[in-house]
Automatic annotation (TrEMBL):
Pfam short name (any one): FliS
Protein name, as recorded: Flagellar protein FliS
InterPro entries associated with the record: FliS (IPR003713), FliS_sf (IPR036584)
GO biological process: bacterial-type flagellum assembly
Amino acid sequence: MRRGNIFMDMDASLSAYQQSQVLSDNPDYLGRELYRAVYRDLLSMKSALEQQKWDQLVNQGTHAQWIISALHDVADTSTRAGQDFKTLHRGLWEYLNDIMRRHDSKTLEEVTQVVVDLIHQLDQRLSVSDNRQVAGLGWSG
């Protein structure tokens, strides 16, 4: 079995460590990555709907719901933005449930657009703000 260069492996570990440090320093970075994961799940759900692969639809939908539930649970409800944030995620969770039960492609398109809008909003905030400054989408971070 051939092994790679040990220094390359150490560099990869260091890079992963630095990446995790950036993610933990600003919850908006982590949030954006979680929304991107949900977006990938939604694309897989669309494919499953088109191919009528119901098990795949439910598997991807459930994975998206887990992430949405985690985002829902970190909402800072002491602010109006946090309350809205929590309400949004509850609605997304319920819509995902409807998509899985009813095989509703129209609702899937709407949920996908909401997630895309959230990703774009975070991209915009992160591009203008300092890396250490929390944009404050409503999570307690």
